[in-house]
Amino acid sequence: MAAISKKILPLLYIATIFLLLLNKAHSLDSLSFSYNNFEQDDERNLILQGDAKFSASKGIQLTKVDDNGTPAKSTVGRVLHSTQVRLWEKSTNRLSNFQAQFSFVIKSPIDNGADGIAFFIAAPDSEIPKNSAGGTLGLFDPQTAQNPSANQVLAVEFDTFYAQDSNGWDPNYQHIGIDVNSIKSAATTKWERRDGQTLNVLVTYDANSKNLQVTASYPDGQSYQLKYMVDLRDHLPEWGRVGFSAASGQQYQSHELQSWSFTSTLLYTSPHYLKLGRSMI
């Protein structure tokens, strides 16, 4: 009995140390946070860029409004979570699953308000590009907006501008679009902006199927769905930041983020030597 214990204890010790290290590594490969609303204290974990600011209604107003809530022209703002997210791992070629849930409301005193809001993933050092108010949604430099080799941005856009002849990339309807390193969406579906109504959105990415899926719905049940197959390893760096961007040009509207939750996990496969350790015991 004593001889067996002497054999087992070192193996148990090694297995325990390994599992502790594995748990630490796993924590670095996962990210999870949730905001049912936004308070000023949340700024310690968020990066606000451009005209974005906390609102009195416990949201984040991404584009500029005056004291009466009237939206401004030529405005752009973004918010990103300060913690970086692992999107994939070069050494193992593994990909991360992720899920984002959020809600927002758009308001405009004019019928043809613009331009829109987007959930996006970009490089950790991402800043607002120059001259990106308006149709490029604070995500792309207009000079390279349609050049995928010049960008590293994955976005789900909610675009209220639809005069196709004026920019060359938007379809001729309000739409939800999936953008892969270009302001010209890789996939779109028609969408109706409802002034002052909350839109609830779920974005999921399945690392096994490479399927990015978007489901959006209004409180009355009207819903929209969109999906696109994309391998993040081909378009984004290993580490990134997640956030939201919104912009208006000469046609204006407000864009308020009301809630946001996010979870990501790098796919994990148990190493063969852990199984060997169990068999040795």
UniProtKB/TrEMBL annotation:
Stretch forming the signal peptide: 1-27
GO terms, molecular function: carbohydrate binding; metal ion binding
Residues in coiled coil: none
Domain called Legume lectin: residue spans: 30-265
Gene3D superfamilies, per the entry: 2.60.120.200
Protein keywords: Calcium, Lectin, Manganese, Metal-binding, Signal
Domain of life: Eukaryota
Family stated for the protein in its record: Belongs to the leguminous lectin family.
Listed name of the protein: Alpha-methyl-mannoside-specific lectin
